[in-house]
Amino acid sequence: MRAAVVGGGVAGAALAWRLRTAGADVTVYAPGAADASGASGGLVRGFEVDGDAARDAAESLAELRADDLVRDWAGYRETGSVYVTADDVTPSVAAVEAVLPGSASVVDGAELARRFGFRDLPADAAGVVERHAGHFSPDRFREHALRWLAGHGGDVRTERVAEVLPGPAVRTSAGVTAFDAVVVAAGAWTPRLVGGEPLRAKQIQYGLYRLPIPCAASFVDDRTGLYGRPDRDGAFLLGMGCDRWDVDPDGVTPDHDLAARVLDTARRRFGVAGGEVVADRVVASFDCYRSPGGLRLVDAGGGVSTFTGGSGGAAKTVLAASRRAAAELVAS
Predict the structure, then answer these.
(1) How many beta carbons lie within 10 A of that of residue 50, not counting itself?
(2) pTM score of the predicted model
(3) Per-residue pLDDT tens digits for 123-178
(4) 38/285 Cα distance (integer angstroms)
(5) Residue 272 region, left (φ>0) first, then alpha (ψ -120 to 50), else beta?
(6) Which of 24, 215, 252, 326 is the most core-located residue (most Cβ within 10 A)?
């Protein structure tokens, strides 16, 4: 099987690695532009509100923890995780428990306040606490995966793809090359190359703040949209969802009003007072979104597929999703 993967982010690199491991002849087009993988905070945990997403996230985390090579590629750091929600968590916790026994537990609002410092939570709030969770570097992982590919018979090309053609084939400045299968895993650039399912580019953003947050674990508060994790030298990575849709991935700029709202929300949610605090750094990037979200292989016709739509959270599920996508391609 001669396969092309268009896009060298964490999704494309993981898929190319899986395909080459399965014996496919793989060419990756990875032009090296700034992308979501280079900007991602890399939060990983097993729990997701959606049960299917929780299964993929838990399986990915289990592989990350069990495989020495993958863990080294990713630079995984285990800090634990807490997810605050008012939704029914029972099915998703069961999915995590099936893969990572003993990792997840459910606590109430009082326990969230005592152990993690959350304040002003609604009466129906619950928290899913995971021992086995943390964060890794998608940028580091994709660099190692592409390096492995180049050293194990794969072809890693840096030219930008101008067009993906049915047949399937790829057109660059060097001409048109035919393949048995072409997978577009170009994140926010995917809608420019492939029609079909509705895919939209959306801005993602976080900042690094020197704020004395009492939570030592990675966290998501789905009531406010605030998420974060400890970073180096006492800083905390904090972010919230951005409402800038259909952005140009070549021209994203920071939303400073959003950065201010993140800081204000974190102060209120953790009861943190003090003097003037500004972000050490604000990182603005973009990702490809679909509804419903989720990283999966989608047939676009003519031998072309997409592998994108992680909606800002591909790091959590990319290992399981890439394994399944590679198996689907090889079997087709």
Answers:
(1) 16
(2) 0.92
(3) 889 999 999 999 999 999 999 999 999 999 999 999 999 999 999 999 999 999 99
(4) 9
(5) beta
(6) 326
